[in-house]
Write a structure and sequence with these properties.
alpha/beta; Rossmann fold; UDP-N-acetylmuramoyl-L-alanine:D-glutamate ligase; eleven-stranded mixed β-sheet; 16% strand
């Protein structure tokens, strides 16, 4: 797992690398600037492009000055540098890079706080190197005026490490003055806030470039935030053994579906089979039998009758998932209470079952240890109270997983899995083509299948979320599809797993 660090921890990693590699701070800045330029020249190869680099007087501005010099060396001769002189202070490395740049025929002009507004900018690309990751208060005064005027120019903006005005961690004010970036070239790793939806108004995409910070030290800091990598999934998913059989891979029970919402039960059941459960039984109303047998013949059925007192041999199942398309009527509530009363192994709770837990929060404390909740944002807020922003949800996620001793999969573009040890694992697979109803039902089926095969809730969530997104990526990105359907993702999972083994 790659640890994700706060702004203060990244500064610690910088200082440690400088002291122990050892490398001078100006050489580390040069390394970072070269990494930025390497990405830039590959994505903006036209050397006649007009570029304006706005540089503050701190180390982020020092990066910008080094980038200007390096771009000139790559043949980009239409580069202008704008020094944002809103303070008498300047970092030592900024001063050194300014002297190096002044030896070249690069135009350098200054912007002062008495005239902070930029009304015209002939450059088609703006490189933002005004303020870096050390920001601890909202922009105001001259900085706010400058940022607002630059946003009004509607140029392509490439930010160095972090968009000016954006906090790298902590709560983001949606009304904050931030220089909106088309792309952020960030150093070493994404900032935590880049992975939260609150950053979306301020940046379209980010790319992380390696600048060689000490990986051992970064791991030793003990951040609770992690980014999942493919190697982590390969360590979880193992090849099937030759002399195994269906009993080896568990028996999953899904309690799902109503007459009008059988699609959720079908998708969840299909995904459970494709993700490797040895046996899958789906508990559905009789009206869904024909649909289930037609859609996925491999899935067994257990019929629920209206008004029936729930009764099943629950102990024979390796794992139970409940909720997709189940509804919230009295029968559904009775089935949820029945499972919570009579089944002590971990369960997976999704969709309607989550909303029933929200309506009866005392039931949360009856969930078996190691269980899994898979809410989207609205379901999460119903369960734990409305939150004003995603940073608050992130902290609530950590609190509730420890308090309830379970895993919570909070779904979004970078889905977060919170675990009972207080850690949060960010997933970086998936794409916008997967924004289709029913995709969450497939995810629930995948996680349930992995738990049926003996994986812990933690490992099943981390691997299941990754595989779900990776299957969608293989379908959408390779074929450039605008929309990927949930059933396609379920069917892709075996091939996705096979590529990892």
């Amino acid at each position: 797992m790659q640890p994700l660090l706060t702004a203060s921890q990244i500064r610690e990693a910088d200082a440690y690398t400088i002291a122990h590699e050892p490398v001078s701070s100006i050489d580390l800045m040069e390394r970072a600037s070269k990494a930025f330029v390497s990405w830039f020249v590959n994505h903006f190869p036209d050397q006649q492009e007009t570029i304006a680099i706005y540089c503050g007087t701190g180390n982020n501005g020092g990066d910008g000055l080094a980038i200007a010099r390096l771009l000139h060396g790559h043949g980009y001769h239409q580069v202008d540098v704008k020094l944002v002189r809103f303070s008498d202070k300047a970092s030592k490395d900024f001063q050194e890079n300014l002297q190096r740049l002044q030896a070249l025929p690069v135009t350098i002009t200054e912007i002062h706080p008495d005239q902070p507004t930029v009304k015209e900018e002939p450059a088609s690309i703006i490189i933002d190197a005004i303020l870096g990751s050390g920001l601890n208060k909202p922009l105001s005064g001259a900085y706010e005026q400058l940022v607002n005027s630059l946003n009004g120019l509607q140029r392509t903006v490439v930010a160095v490490d972090v968009p000016t005005g954006l906090y790298t961690d902590g709560e983001i004010d949606p009304q904050a003055a931030v220089l909106k970036a088309d792309v952020v070239i960030t150093f070493q790793q994404p900032k935590i806030n880049f992975l939260l939806p609150d950053s979306a108004p301020f940046m379209d995409e980010w790319k992380a470039v390696n600048i060689g910070l000490d990986a051992g030290f970064m791991s030793s800091i003990g951040s609770p935030y992690k980014m999942v990598e493919m190697a982590d999934i390969q360590a979880i998913i193992k090849p099937r053994k030759r002399f195994s059989n269906k009993g080896t891979y568990g028996h999953a029970l899904l309690i799902a579906g109503q007459e009008r919402t059988m699609g959720a039960a079908l998708l969840c059941s299909s995904a459970c089979m494709y993700a490797g459960a040895g046996l899958t039984t789906t508990c559905i109303p009789a009206s869904g039998l024909t649909a289930l047998n037609s859609y996925q013949a491999e899935v067994m059925a257990s019929v629920r009758e209206p008004g029936q007192t729930p009764s099943l041999e629950l102990d024979k199942f390796s794992v139970i998932a409940i909720g997709p398309g189940l509804g919230k009527d009295d029968d559904a509530r009775n089935w949820l209470r029945y499972v919570l009363t009579n089944y002590r192994k971990p369960i997976v709770v999704d969709a309607d079952a989550l909303n029933m837990l929200a309506a009866e929060p005392e039931l949360l404390h009856r969930l078996p240890a190691g269980s899994v909740l898979t809410p989207h944002m609205k379901e999460f807020d119903r369960l734990f109270g409305e939150r004003q922003n995603w940073w608050q949800r992130l902290q609530t996620l950590r609190q509730k997983t420890q308090e309830l001793n379970l895993c919570i999969v909070l779904k979004n573009s970078y889905t977060m899995t919170g675990t009972p040890d207080g850690n949060v694992y960010f997933n970086c697979t998936s794409n916008a083509a997967m924004a289709v109803g029913g995709m969450g039902d497939v995810l629930t089926g995948i996680i349930t299948a992995l738990m049926s095969q003996g994986h812990s809730g933690k490992d099943a969530c981390i691997a299941g979320v990754h595989l779900h997104g990776k299957a969608g990526d293989e379908l959408a990105l390779s074929n450039r599809l605008h929309v990927v359907l949930p059933g396609q993702v379920a069917a892709q999972v075996p091939a996705t797993i096979a590529k990892m083994l």
